Amino acid sequence: MKGNISTKAGDKGKTGIVGGDRVFKDDARIECLGALDEANSSLGLLRAKLSPDHDWESGLRRIQTEMMNLMSHVATPSAVERKPQVPLPEDSAEWMESWMEAIEGDLPSTTEYFLLPGGSEISALCHVCRTQARRAERRLVTLDRIDPVDPCILKFTNRLSDLLFKLSRQEQHASGADEIRWRLFKGEQSK
Known about the structure:
The protein is mainly α.
């Protein structure tokens, strides 16, 4: 099946949204969808860097699928009567919390949450995904003030960035790389 993705309808800076309206491409909803899409694409890169039997594979695939689902809800203004038929990530925050608890059990404890991103490629990529999830969360908050977003979507993105931080630490620990902690106002680095 061939299709032409280039409709040229957006050449003047507007795009269509669910319900038929056209909005500028820097509209809060479009910015939000773009940030979510970017985060999901980076998660795909993270998955591509892992072996197919890696412990994270099924969890990250679930997260990517749920992100696609929640994007259809974000794309739908509250005034539109016909809602998406795909599920919201209603239990995902709790599932990610369980995953984080399992990770924590294997990590050295720390009270430092300002770590310099890096170490292994996988750990650094987890940080890239984490910061993109945070940007998506900020865009969701902006949209929520304009047109309410389901609370489970906000919760999902908040937990996702927390999970990615834990995954980066897990990878650092597994690879034997030192975590470089940044200490605010002390001007020192410690391992």
